[in-house]
Design goal:
The protein is an alpha+beta fold. It has 2 domains: 3-154, no CATH class; 159-402, paralog of FGE (formylglycine-generating enzyme) (Alpha-Beta Complex), CATH 3.90.1580. Helix content is 26%, strand content 15%. It is built from 7 helices and 17 strands. Strands 1, 2, 3 and 4 form a 4-stranded antiparallel sheet that branches. A 4-stranded antiparallel sheet has the order 5-8-17-9. Strands 13-12-16 form a 3-stranded mixed sheet, with no helix packed on it.
């Protein structure tokens, strides 16, 4: 073979080598493009499926499936079927029960369980460091064909935003004695409900402290009432929050005299959260008239001592909501809060320990609790209830500030 022939053959070999490399690369590129197209189509399916899951998460048991026996969630909630349906909104245990038992149809998608019974995983930024972790929510895995997608659902049900305006602390006082404050350029979110037993058990179990309900009949929607202030602060911190303070509580419960004026000169406020006019309230009449006749329907607004035994208490009683959506403001359970104005006045005493005639059933009034125990000696009350309990029950709620309000 001549040198010329050898050179031509080498050139052809090189060309073939380059061409084969080009074809291989092009083939790989086509596969990559094809995978991108498939993933894009799979993502469309994921979006539709996630919308359905999000709807169940946000609405909760809107169809009363548990009370009608269509869902049996004893593993999550016990056998009590009389829990208020709003308790199931943004509730990871209800969502898990629903996904496990209803086997919802997600066209083209399926939910990957974390275990034989758990389809959701609770997340907390305090226990799952990372910018993508919510303060509190759940993590779900959705599968579409060969692709798996993460879905994070944040709790959007339990808080309410405090409008930016001028507020006041405590009962209405004439003149300069009225203490005013404002939250302009600050975003404050307040919990609508008292912290529940379900919240407490969830917190402890996430911290690997295996604490379970005492029985299947325990009402997990009820408030947790046997914690001391240090534990309350720790729970709120776990949720990325702090214990509510008296300023935010008053602002969230006093009905503003003029909602259209964020900078009012005078802040008139009724002692009752559901009306601007104090004389419209049955509590006003109970204190004023000796022949006042208490009616069972009053328990829907303020769960006073008269309600005990004839009306079931619910931490999610929406008919007692304040103007901003806080539930069970008057009556029910005493509430602990931090007080930056008068630190020792940290207890809102309105509760089922006192009858409708009690002065404690008024917004802005607070008593003192040393926070060292729940026995009567730990409380400095201006008036003691008849048949004082051996241990008081104290509920609480949280609040938080959002950064970068400006």
């Amino acid at each position: 073979m001549t040198k010329r022939e050898i050179a031509v053959l080498s050139l052809l070999s090189g060309i073939l080598l380059i061409l084969s490399g080009f074809l291989i690369k092009n083939r790989l590129d086509l596969k990559k493009v094809d995978r991108i197209v498939r993933k894009k189509e799979a993502f469309k399916v994921f979006v539709k499926a996630s919308d359905l899951v999000l709807k169940i998460w946000a609405q909760g048991d809107v169809k009363n499936l548990i009370s009608r026996g269509k869902l049996t969630c004893e593993k999550e909630f016990g056998k009590n079927k009389s829990i208020d349906p709003t308790f199931y909104k943004c509730n990871p245990h209800f969502l898990n029960c629903y996904l496990r038992e209803k086997k919802i149809e997600l066209v083209g998608a399926k939910i990957l369980p974390f275990s034989s019974i758990n389809y959701v995983k609770v997340l907390s930024r305090s226990l799952t460091p990372g910018i993508k972790a919510p303060n509190y929510g759940v993590f779900i895995k959705l599968s579409v064909g060969e692709f798996d997608f993460p879905l994070v659902l944040e709790d959007s049900c339990s808080e309410t935003l405090l409008p930016q305006r001028i507020y006041a602390y405590g009962p209405y006082k004439k003149g300069s004695a009225d203490i005013k404050w404002d939250n302009f350029n600050r975003l404050i979110l307040v919990d609508k409900h008292l912290v529940t037993k379900r919240d407490f058990y969830e917190w402890k179990n996430l911290e690997n402290k295996k604490i379970k309900p005492q029985s299947l009949e325990e009402d997990l929607s009820g408030p947790i009432t046997d914690l001391l202030p240090g534990e309350m602060k720790s729970f709120c911190a776990f949720r990325g929050k702090q214990v509510i303070n008296s300023l935010a509580f008053d602002a969230s419960t006093f009905f503003p005299g003029d909602l259209g004026k964020p900078r009012p000169l005078k802040i008139f406020r009724s002692p009752y959260p559901w009306s601007r006019q104090r004389r419209d309230s049955f509590l006003y009449n109970a204190k004023r008239y000796a022949d006042f006749d208490f009616k069972k329907k009053y328990c829907l607004k303020a769960y006073t001592k008269e309600c005990m035994g004839q009306f079931k208490y619910s931490d999610f009683q929406y008919k007692a909501n304040s103007w901003l959506g806080l539930s069970n403001v008057l009556g029910g359970k005493m509430q602990y809060m931090e007080n930056p104005i008068e630190p020792s006045k940290n207890l809102f005493a309105s509760s089922n320990y006192f009858p409708a005639t009690s002065k404690f059933h008024s917004l802005g009034l607070r008593e003192s609790w040393d926070g060292e125990g729940l026995e009567p000696l730990n409380f400095d009350l201006s008036k003691r209830p008849l048949n004082e309990p051996g241990r008081y029950e104290i509920g609480f709620r949280c609040m938080r500030y959002l950064p970068n309000a400006l």
